[in-house]
Structure formats: C-alpha cells, structure tokens
C-alpha cells in the first residue's frame, strides 16, 4: 500500500525531508510511526504527537487506505 507522509517541525529536521510516498504493509498510523521512528531515529514518542489522515485528526489505530495522506503533528510553540 502507498501512503503519503508529510513531516513538520522536528520530524522534518530529523527525516531531512518534508514528505515522501511510502510503499508499506502497515495499515495504521501507529505502526507507520513506529517504523519511521526506527528509520529516522525520531526523538518524539507517539504519546507526544497528534495524527491527521486526509486533513482530519484521527486515532492512531484507524485503518488506512491506498494513497491516504498522513501527518504526524509534533508539539509546536508559538508566539
């Protein structure tokens, strides 16, 4: 299955890219983040993130479909 993943803030810095298309067998954001955490050595735990699928906040266990768009949203400070 192909999934588009977009990275922001610290995750973008650690992945060294803003987005990518993954061809993977994982079917939920939780498993995908755990895979990416190992691949890119992400410093954030899943409990520190929100997840959006196709521009809507979702649960980490939602089942994904082909070419869904996935964003892991880290905490950000503004001012």
Q: How is this structure best described in words?
A:
- With 79 residues, the protein is α+β, with helices and mostly antiparallel strands.
- The chain has one domain (2-73): Beta-grasp domain (Ubiquitin-like (UB roll), Roll), CATH 3.10.20.
- It has 2 helices and 5 strands, in the order βαβαβββ.
- β3 (50-53) and β4 form a beta hairpin.
- The N and C termini lie far apart (39 Å).
- 18% of the residues are buried.
- The model has no long low-confidence stretch (mean pLDDT 96).
CATH superfamily: Beta-grasp domain
The backbone outline, from C-alpha atoms, is globular
CATH topology: the name is Ubiquitin-like (UB roll)
Structural class: alpha+beta
As a percent range, the share of strand residues is: 25-35%
What's the architecture, going by CATH?
Roll
Low-confidence runs: none
Number of helices: 2
Overall average pLDDT: 96
The first-level CATH class name: Alpha Beta
What does the main sheet amount to? 5 strands, mixed
